[in-house]
Amino acid sequence: MKKLLVANRGEIAIRVMRTAKKMGIKTVAVFSEVDRNALHVKYADEAVCIGPAPSNESYLKGDKIIEVAKSLHVDAIHPGYGFLSENADFAELCEANGIIFIGPRSKAIKVMGSKLAAKETVKGYNIPMVPGTDEAITDIPKAKKIAKEIGFPILIKASAGGGGKGMRIVENEAEFESQMDRAISEATNAFGDGSVFIEKYVGSPRHIEIQVMADMHGNVLHFFERECSVQRRHQKVVEEAPSAVLTPELREKMGQAAINVARSCDYIGAGTVEFLLDENLNFYFLEMNTRLQVEHPVSEWISGVDLVELQIKVARGEELDIKQEDLKINGHALELRVYAEDPMNDFLPSVGNLEVYQLPEGDNIRVDNGFEEGMDIPIYYDPMLSKLITYGNTREEAIELMLKAIENYHVRGVETTLPFGRFVCEHDAFKSGNFDTHFVKKYYSPSLLEKQHKNEAEIAAKIALKRYLEDQKLLRLPN
Ligand code: MV4
User: Fold this and answer.
1) Per-residue pLDDT tens for 82-120?
2) What CA–CA distance (Å, rounded) separates 112 from 452?
3) Where are the domains of the chain?
């Protein structure tokens, strides 16, 4: 593999190219018209404009990207996350054109893209699942009977949905039919697929996911868990590894289950198996993400591997040369997603110009960043600026360092989620490790940030007053 094209933008494009360069592989960036001056374009050895700003006219244009790849004699395409990363047709198109797609085979992408197909596939692999139905519901009275057996509340889920889209809680028997009708029509409208199924509703779960890596020779490893319960409307905000609540025994069990999920679909490359963990530490398989995830750096830090390097090696057909028993957790890593969103104003995108943009630096701080001072943030894409990652020997150390790093991250021109990150890291529930997926809903309100804003304003006012008084003194000196 001599040349790699990264079919993505922002921090992930740069992060992938960083490892490619380390491995002596030439890099090609693609970019939209609005990204002409973006960092990922400057970072690459070659760069090609692939169309206008809207994603469906640029970063989602698989055929155009293949055309560029062929004309520049590219050997492999890394899709990053989002965009084409879980597009089975694109994976197939790469193969058909003799280009390596850095990811699993299209069949695994397709199967895991459907929750019902995924359930079907992992059957017989000894994977714990939430009690519920494993086929699309066609007979509503029959489904109601099953719901009664499971016990309310139950959850209706769309097979095609992702990230919580198309989910509905049903509290009691009386509302079952109307909710079912609505769920089916919503799923049909949103995904063109009205298949829904039901599960027992797990009330206060944690979201725990396991990082896996599989080669073409039958080796599958897991790189422990990430705790991703701190999320807001299915958007993760803070992630960490390891989880504060897993025991070595449970970690081993969940890791083995994740490996089995990967085996069930002949997985190749980096993948993530998502689980719910209930209050009694029972875990249940939710779905598998067939890509490198945003939050992969926390797993890299505690396991000491470069996951992109392993992705590339596996894609070249090499055998994984690590053994599961050689992998050990070292320390604790925390990640904050820094978005150009206003936490005071319902996290609305706060796009504009980065008048000041200074990153924190230092030991045990990693910033996977996609922007620089003076740049405009385009309105067309996800407004994530960077990921701020800290490491410590203990969870407490990683949290303390995160607070310091947030203080030393200076942004002016747009609002960011940095103050929200500080709120999380200072919260007792977070610090104690005693939280679930309801953390943000339960504890956060903008007024809790206001206080900090006021403190900052107060300090700024005091400094201004002091300067003013000093200036006055200077002015009077000649007398
Ligand atoms: C659940 C659940 C409770 N019970 N399934 C949300 C996204 C999708 N991947 C699965 N999700 C959930 N499935 C049962 N049977 C609660 C959630 C859920 C959730 C899961 C992970 C992270 C954040 C979440 C926020 C709300 C609901």
Assistant:
1) 999 999 999 999 999 999 999 999 999 999 999 999 999
2) 43
3) 3-102, 131-200, 206-446, 447-479
Q: Would you say the CB of residue 207 lies under 6 angstroms from ligand 1? A: yes
CATH homologous superfamily of 131-200: ATP-grasp fold, A domain (3.30.1490.20)
The question of whether 291 is a catalytic residue gets the answer yes
Query: Which CATH number does 206-446 carry?
Result: 3.30.470.20
Report yes or no on whether pTM surpasses 0.90: yes
Residue in 119, 159, 199, 202 to alter for ligand 1 test, most ligand atoms within 8 A of Cβ = 202
Distance (angstroms) between ligand 1 centre and the Cα of 164 equals 6
Ligand 1 in contact with 234 (CB < 6 A)? Answer: yes
Atom of ligand 1 nearest to the CA of 201: 4
pLDDT tens for 330-372 read: 999 999 999 999 999 999 999 999 999 999 999 999 999 999 9
Which of 206, 226, 251, 291 is labelled catalytic? 291
Q: Which fold has domain 3-102?
A: Rossmann fold (3.40.50)
